[in-house]
Amino acid sequence: MSKKQALGQHFLRNREILERIVDVSEITQEDTVLEIGAGMGDLTEVLINRAKNVIAIELDPSLYKILKERFSSRENLTLIHGDALKFPYEELPPFKVVANIPYYITKSIIFRLLEAPNLISMTLTIQKEVAERLCAKPSTKAYSSLSIISQYYTKAEIKFYIPPKFFSPPPQVSSAVIKLDKRKEPAVMVKDEKLFLRIVKSAFGKRRKMLSNSLKSIIDEPKELLPKIGINPQKRPEELNIEDFAHIANSLCNFCKN
What we know:
By secondary structure, the protein is an alpha/beta fold. It folds into two domains: about 5-180, Vaccinia Virus protein VP39 (Rossmann fold); about 195-255, Helicase, Ruva Protein, domain 3. It contains eleven helices and nine strands. It has helices at about 5, 15-25, 40-50, 60-70, 105-115, 130-135, 145-155, 195-205, 210-215, 220-230, 240-255, and strands at about 10, 30-35, 55-60, 75-80, 95-100, 120-125, 155-160, 165-170, 175-180. The protein has a seven-stranded mixed β-sheet, with helices on both faces. The longest helix has 16 residues, at about 240-255.
């Protein structure tokens, strides 16, 4: 395995597909755009031709050197040699993300970006399976805690799929381009966001079990509490929608106050 493969980097160099990715991202000449994992700079080149400012982050020192040489004359590009998981996104002005995310940090970087108050949208090329989980609906195989958390903060839509043959080296899985538009307000109202997220993660941590078992670490006697608030304790987490989980969290807050 090469160093680039170990970092989960699969380079997408097809210009037509890169242009299509930037098209669906809806960036304009007024936008600040962040690219994570700039690689060889093929997507970077399309972005700096379309956006007002581009910030490109690359961890690999040899690729960072290539990027510096390739774009030495481009004034609207800021290159960052560093770890995208440690970048201070909170300090950026309103920004959009367009990136071919290294597979091994996909979920971590999405959660990290969602914390940034000035995030407008993310247009990401990621594994097909992860993209489908981000968009999944209740009572489907792909539905998970990732589905609820992403849809709590964003409106997610898969734009198109990319077969492995268009990448170098080709990954073992198909990829998808997904756009996540940050909501101005979360999808549901919750009194305690941390509790809501804990409940969601705990429920899906044991997704094959009934709620009465999977929520024991958070709720005392869930078999007794859940029926009182209109939730069947024998249901499994994938049968509940985001409103159901918000209802559980808000009801628990009310019980704690009484």
